[in-house]
Structure formats: C-alpha cells, structure tokens
Amino acid sequence: MNKKILTNIIVIILLIVSIVFVLNLARKNEAPVSNETLMITTTPIPTSILNTENNFLSVSWLINSLDLPKQIKVVKKEDGQISDDLIEKIAQYFGFGDPPAVKDSNFIMYKAKDLKSSMDINKETNVIKYNKNLLLFPIEKNETIINTEEIKNKLSELIKSVFGLNQINLRFDEINYQEIYGPRYISSNESQATIIEIRAVYMVNNYPIYSQNGYPVMAKFTRDGTLVNLIVNWPGKFSTTEITKNIKSFDEIKNTKGSEFKIISVDGDKYFDMSSEDEVIKKTEITGGYFGFLNLPQNSELKPSVFLNGNSSLKAGPVSVILSLSVSK
Questions:
Q1: CA 44/CA 124 separation, integer angstroms
Q2: Is residue 111 helix, strand or coil?
Q3: Neighbours of 149 (CB within 10 A)
C-alpha cells in the first residue's frame, strides 16, 4: 500500500476517535433532564451500613402516613410452649402412628414408614413443619384447580380443630401459584402451576399477628386440594389486658435508625427462588404498611409493631420485603 495513503488512513482514524471522545465528554457534562418523580425521604442509618448483617438497612419512604392507634391494650400469651399431648394429636392426624424417629427436650421428628411424609416440631420456637416427599413421590398435574375458598376453609378448619386454635381467626393475605423445580417451589402462573400456596396471619382485636419468620401459617396444596406442605408457628393462647401502651407517631417511626428494622420476609420471582446466593438486602423502598403484633417465642406478651411492605433489588432480580419495627413507647 502507498505510504501516503496509509498515513492518511491513520490520521482519519485518529480524528474519528477524537470526535467520539469529545462527544461522550460533552454528554457527561450535560445537565440531567428533569423528570417529575415521587419525592422520597430516607431513614437515618448507622455509619456501619457496609456491615453484612441484615439489620443494617437503608429505608426510603414512598408513603406519607400510616394508620396507627395512639394507644393499644397489652396482649398476654398463655400456654407459651406447645404441649406433648397436642403434638401427639397433630401427629395422629397426619398419620404418624409410630413413636417419633427423633425426640429430645426441644426437637421432635416423625417419619412415615413408606417415606412419603415427615413432620418436625421445634418446641423452642413452636414451629411445626409437615411435608410430603415430592422428590421420591412426585405429583401429577391436575387440570382442574380447586376453588381457593374451599382451600381457605379447609386450612382454617385444620388450624382451629387439629392445632387447638379455635379462638383465633385467620386472615388470608396471599395466594401464590408455584411449580416444583427439584427440591424447590418456584413462582409460576395459574395455568402452569402444580401447587397453590396460601399465607395467613392470626388476628387479635382486629390486628394481625406475625411471627419472627413472617407469616405464621403457610400451606401448599396440589391443584385438587391435597395438602403437601404446612408450616405453622403455634402461638399459644392470648388474653387482652386493661394495661395500655402508647404507640409512636408516624414521624417518630420515619426517624428510627435503620438498625432497628428487622426483615421478616423476602419474596421474588422464579429467578430469586432458584438462586443459590445468600445476598444481603441493604436498601428497601417502603410502599405501604399497617399496625399489628409480633409474636416472639421468648416473650410473655405480643409486641406492638408496624409491618412495612417494601421493594428491594438483588442480583437475582427485584424482591418484595416485609419489615417489622417495634413501636411501643
């Protein structure tokens, strides 16, 4: 190639690169376009936000108020620990006729002889888990989906009659459709789902009661209404006293340090369900909330709290979060 032509080509290339560089630099220096967006305020957070503990959160508020009582009556807990007699009753209901496979002072496990199901009870946390073994005994998809009201009634009757909670009402908050993916349940839609999940909270004095793990009742049914998985945080019995506690105002709640908020539930789409990474949620945008009680196993009374619905984002995608915050003065 002619040396002069080669030199001209090199000059042209350098000129093009220079022009591109200048244009990019100009774009960076442009004033940002003003878009009308929802104003948010941010809860003060500790300087140790980079700590990987879940309770160090940056909380942004997209709401301007919460419906809060000014005072609330104290609710005491009775029969704090689930009894052996009730455990035996529940075990018999689920068909575990033999003695438990494991039993110590605080943990009991039952296994069916045919390995089709199991159940374990943690007496320290009062959490009861029943599970059908769908890995060894997979279910077939039924084209007919049972009416969700029938499932709600079935679950409510089970909780009241078998678990001895006939004085407690349930509020059904979520119905989710799922598929089975190996050992996991992942999000699906109604037409493709093989599992219907229902989540519920207990109610006392018209207020919801959550557990430290979020919803105290979570059940999974097949499309035809067969129970395949159940998690119950057994709450004991409640009694409302005449003692009252003052409740923080919305402004006081907004000015609470991020370290005092607790994550009690995280949910995402099927990519989140399939993710094997344990990520830490550091930022949450609050989109709604309500007053209720938190039931902690070590406490002799329910803790007045607000429960805040929020949105966050992880590597696996967007997630919805429920935070709790103690609000009694």
A1: 34
A2: strand
A3: 9
- In terms of domains, do 215 and 85 share one? yes
| Strand runs labelled E in the chain | 41-42, 58-61, 71-78, 102-103, 107-111, 117-122, 127-132, 169-181, 184-187, 195-204, 207-211, 217-222, 227-233, 237-246, 262-268, 283-295, 303-314, 317-326
Surface-to-core class of residue 306, CB atoms within 10 Å of its CB (0-12 exposed, 13-18 middle, 19+ buried): buried
| Paired strand residues for 262 | 324
Looking at residue 123, its pLDDT comes to 92
Residues 211 and 102 in one domain: yes
Q: Which residue would you say has higher pLDDT here, 87 or 276?
A: 87
pTM higher than 0.85 for the full model?
no
Q: How far is CA 323 from CA 85, 128, 286, in A?
A: 35, 23, 9
Encoding tokens for residue 265?
Answer: 């539930």
Other C-beta atoms closer than 10 Å to the C-beta of 160 total 15
**Residue 4 within any structural domain of the chain:** no
Cα–Cα distance, 199 to 225 (Å, whole number)? 15
Are the C-beta atoms of 185 and 195 separated by less than 8 Å?
A: yes
Q: What is the Cα–Cα distance from 123 to 101, expressed in whole angstroms?
A: 16
Residue 311 has pLDDT above 50, yes or no: yes
In a shared domain, residues 268 and 159: no
Instruction: Look up the domain containing 45 and give its range.
Output: 41-74+242-326
